[in-house]
Amino acid sequence: MAAATKWSETAMLVIDMQKEFVDTAMSSIALPAGEAILPAVREAVAVAGERGIFVIWVVREHDPAGRDVELFRRRFYSGGKGPAVKGSKGAELADGLVIKDEDYKLVKPRFSSFFATNLDSVLKTTGIKNLVVVGVQTPNCIRQTVFDAVALDYEKVTLITDATAAANSEIHLGES
């Protein structure tokens, strides 16, 4: 079976690998663990590209007034400033990560990549049955996306633990 055929039913979701969340030099809310997984995420994306796996970049890009964020986060948005505001430096992908022409960019409004997005439709109309997940943050966006993928009957949902991260390793590895 050719590589393109073998992997044609698989997509990789790269979740929230934006400067706001993983670049500790520019953002006070960035995770050091998120920054630490950047090389592994870059490698996973490169391998996906070599294998012809459909790469989907799942990002947050919020309204400057915070009208589209969770109610509990709206207090962080005032005067056009807040985490991952559309067009801001923080909303950009982390250094070394690039959306290619054959990739897909999806903006999500909540933790799950499936909630209030067209992700399920994009995947199913593309013939995707299996998902590989990388990114941040394990107890929030990663977990919600994986749970929803399982609930939506994707056949195989694989999490690359070395290319995902949380605020601390105990939470990431489910030890607490």
From TrEMBL:
Coiled coil: none annotated. Residues 10-172 form the Isochorismatase-like domain. It comes from the Eukaryota. It holds the Pfam family Isochorismatase. Belongs to the isochorismatase family. This is Isochorismatase-like domain-containing protein. It comes from Paspalum notatum var. saurae.
